[in-house]
Amino acid sequence: MTDEAIGLWIDGRERPAADGAVAEVAEPAVGATLARVARAGVADAEDAVAAAARAFREGPWPRATAAERQRALLAFAARIRAHADELATLEARNAGKPIADARWEVATAAQCLEFYAGAATALSGRVPPVDGSGLSVVLRQPVGPCALIVPWNFPLLIAAWKLGPALAAGNTVVLKPASATPLTALRLGALAREAGIPDGVLNVVAGPGAEIGAALVRHPAIRKVSFTGDSENGAEILRLAAPDIKRVSLELGGKSANVVFADADLDACVEKSLLSVFGNAGQDCCARSRILVEASIHDEFVARFAEATRRLRVGDPLDPETQVGSLISPAHRARVQGYVEIGEKEGARRVCGGEAPAEGPLARGAFLTPCVFAGVTPGMRIAREEIFGPVVAVMPFRDEAEAVALANDSEYGLSGSLWTGDARRALRVARAIETGVLSVNSSRSVFLESPFGGWKRSGLGRELGIEALEGYTETKSVYFETEG
């Protein structure tokens, strides 16, 4: 990277922060500075909102045909694909994630824009029969300028999840990446312009959430806020958005359950469950960080799962063979290690992992070996609180009723998995578990075409699918009298 600070992207051009502030962005796997980025302040956030509001009020994007927006989004996706290697390397270095994962995420980000490009021409209203002589038409129109606030664990991918439906519906946006991982989001501004998306439609400001994130949420010109992050910040966003009755969608934390019955295919379950909790170094709101195992196979499962965990390759994010990369920062690693200590103090048995490499090249970074706890009881903090790191708690259950009760004994309800060879049981338990998405005999539950989001403290509204597109629209009923 160059020593020159990367600028903000506002109204179709790159520019420094209004006050000249600059922040250093780290490469967590090596414990060094990766880049310098303009640090936005409130004045920059206001400029970005003003650009988005002007583009919505006066510009061509909200007035473009669905086909025109479709072509622009397809061109945007093509620019991402053309820069895939650059974006994947940036993501791997900035977030500490394995390069193989980063490449998949970049390709999926492009695919997301392509999906919503197609959906743009499918977004339609209806003509309901009404008790009148005229014609009632129900329209779906863009909600207006949107604030899109994305987290540091999947910076580019979640940005695409929000940009795709927001832009396809005809909105303008201000995208705020996490302070720790702004690099790929800032590149999106230039790529969008190259794709023909008009100035002011996509603005990107990087800076502290407590300052500029709050300024975006409070701004009267912002009509919708879409936030992905922890539940505490989500609650604060609801509070800040309340005075203007802004539309808000929240994808928040999780403590998802992986329920394993004795009749499950254990070979497939162990293999596919590993990265459902340890993928992205456990920094995933969907992480199946509670594994509930039928008592008759509990000990066998723990032994096999721990053996497979020890074989996971923790290493350099740029090595294609790496399966588990670095955590986002030394401070976050210390927080996760604190939970490892808490688990042991509460009486859980640490079967493997939970250590920071003390020697070799990994000692420079924020690495932590994947950790398995057994002997966990439902009241322990490691069984209840979102750790957001490579730590899993394994607990036994006696029967189906207890499995469901344990799975639902959480303030969260985002994701989960269920493993069984009994189709009738799978249907009963899938219906009973209180979660927004669930996979049966699989660890994959998030698809671009299906709605994604949580119950309880895991959020409001939905990302992905047609539901997300509709969430960026307002409904208007227009009645045309034909008589008199």
Can you characterise this structure?
There is one protein chain. With 484 residues, the protein is of the alpha/beta class. 39% of the residues lie in helices and 19% in strands. The protein is built from 15 helices and 21 strands. It has helices at 42-58, 66-82, 84-95, 99-120, 155-168, 183-194, 209-218, 231-241, 266-278, 298-311, 330-345, 381-384, 400-408, 423-432, 465-471; strands at 8-10, 13-15, 22-27, 32-38, 135-142, 146-149, 173-176, 202-204, 224-228, 247-251, 257-260, 290-294, 349-352, 371-374, 391-397, 412-413, 416-419, 439-440, 455-456, 459-460, 473-480. The strands form six sheets. Strands 13-14-15-12-11-17-18 form a seven-stranded mixed beta sheet, with helices on both faces. The chain has a six-stranded mixed beta sheet with strand order 8-7-6-9-10-20, sandwiched between helices. Strands 1-2 form a two-stranded antiparallel sheet. Helix 1 (42-58) runs parallel beside helix 7 (209-218) and helix 2 (66-82) runs antiparallel to helix 4 (99-120). The protein is globular, with a radius of gyration of 23 Å.
What characterizes the major β-sheet? 7 strands, mixed
* Number of discrete helical segments: 15
Tell me the total number of β-strands. 21
Amino-to-carboxy terminus distance: 71 Å
On the 0 to 100 scale, the average pLDDT is 97
Structural class: alpha/beta
* Content of β-strand: 15-25%
Q: Taking Cα atoms only, what radius of gyration do you get, to the nearest Å?
A: 23 Å
Strand order of the largest sheet: 13-14-15-12-11-17-18
Helix content: 25-40%
Low-confidence stretches: none
Shape: globular
